[in-house]
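User: When convenient, might I ask for sequence and structure tokens for a protein?

AI:
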Amino acid sequence: MRKYWLLILLAFTGCKMVMAQSGVRSVSEDSLRAYFGKWSVTQLAEGGRIDAIRQLDEEVVLCATRGPHKGKLFISEDKGLSWRFLAQPVTVDITCIAETGRRNEFYILTGTAEVWGTIDGGKTWAHLKTLLPNNRNRQKYAASYAIMYTDQGTLLVTDTDSDGGHIYRSSDKGKTWQDRGAISHNALYRLERTGNGIVVNGWQGAVYKSIDDGVTWNKMQQLTDTALFATEYMGMSVVLQADQAGKVFRSRNLGYEWDSVAHLTGAADDFVNIGYGAAYYSTYTERKEVYLTIDYGKTWISLGKLPTQENDWLDHGVRLETADSIITLSGTHKGFMLRTAFHKSRLAQELDQWNNTKTSIDPSRRLNIPHEAIIGQLVDVNALNEPEDIVVHRDFAYIPCRDGNNVAIIDIRNPAKPLLAAKLKDPDILDAFSVAIEKDYLFVLSMTNAMVSVYRISNPGQPKKVAAIKVGGEGSYLQTYRSNYTRLRKIVVQDGYAYVTHSSESKVYILDVKRPAAPAIVSSFHTGDGAFAALVHHHTLYLAGYGPGSSVITVDISDKKNPVITDRIYDPVTLKGTCALAIRGQYLYVTAYNAETVWSLDIKDPLHPKVVQSISDVHMRGPGRIAFFGDSAFVLNSVNNSVAIIRTNKEGRMEMETFLQHPLLKRVYGIAIVDNWLMLAGREAKSFMVLDINKLKR
């Protein structure tokens, strides 16, 4: 094995910036090349070809070969720094690997549609199935290109049948298989996880999606009339696809609708997600260039050719994420492995500067959280995958995570050492968006599935499911989200009743949950203006209508079977994106995400609030959830990764005091205050922090 350490700066000399169709980026070409082109290069298979690579656990990565060294597996046990030959279980091309999250159990797919598996780290192998008796692709491509092990433990495989690509499904680790039939009218290519589901692309030029673990598939959109090869989920609901003609497509809503964003030189091969909106994109024809995006695929810059050999290109790559670093590993057509490594906090900072997002608040207005105020912290890239909220109950924090489709349960009995007690996963909580707790029961809301699931949490480390109930349906298409998948949004529970908002129906459902094992819908009503956040105060329900509404709605819920809307404050400008509610004393506080305002309302007459004040600030960008400590309101600002501290008085008046910032607050989304502990969750940072409010020097 020969190993080369090269600086991409040398190889990319003379490269020129390329304009995407969406515009020109005024960023120093040299600075981008120097930062994102610090490749280390290792030759694993002289002559090629590495087109399959997967991460097996936190440290271990596996890659496989096609071409001259077909059927070989190489393994790295130090995040791609060094490699060794592992095994050659087959003598044909290996086109894909399926990882399970367990170091010793993984599966391979061959170009002849054979599935093989190992449970001892590759020492021994079992031939599980040959899915096709012969190759059905008339263009002489491989018979099969994609295998995936889903979160539910299901194996999925695609084929390249020219008369319609099939998907094969095994729910018993390859012992038996079911052919789900032709999903497309042409061959299928890659499978890709996308938050609340799985997408597949292929020669038809269309994208298909499943949200039920591969049982059923629906066509999302016809993107092009040429083959789609490259596919990548970027996080934050963004998916990228590119075709054989070099056109790049982008979805900002998990693959439901797409926009054409660029037309670049060369046919698409693969994307490699770097993180925080940055990604590599490779082409395998013409100049065989690598491109770079730093804004979630909206614009692209050419980095030139690979620093390996002439006519080489990047075949397939993966992203490894740790608590503080991001590593990319990419195999090439000529048998090389390329590696880059980035410190997460610096990467986020550099990208903010290059994108001119101005997330850093002026030092005179911000308080960098002092080290002594950080009592405890936890970063978990799997359990805290895009946290949405925080609810604390009996020294445990319950955090719904959208991308992870789970609830992270964190033990905070010792705030200095928060520990993951459980990672609650369930097919019924796909796209976990909100949680509520009453007594010993946890209620989890699934946005996409329109389900409310109930778990007994007398032992928080071992939640026991007792019920699940469907609440509403798919609803209507919302232009705000360009889809209807934003269904259930928020749940609050009080005195044996649950109040559930349904965004795409613009409705609220009231459930009787006095018997948690048998929840029942009591009534529902239209809000007329969207339904997002909810808050119960005695016999009054307050609602915030994020989209399509821009309003605060008051509902008399004295009679649960006959709720009555009693008042509505509507302002399409300064209440646009109303998304969070909190009460202190006789005042209701409301945030408007898109209007970048915070409102206070007098609720002395609970059914008829009166506006006291609304405030805004140039540094308050994307205000969200609110929590109180004494007379201080802590307001999340997810757009510029900060927490605003607003001083309030007995008359409901507000005054902006300062802003908290820290790298672990990247896209801060969750907040809770218990005693003097301020708990925060960063959606992009995948973090949980515990701060001592008394040690925040203002």
In short: DSSP finds three helices and 58 strands in the chain.
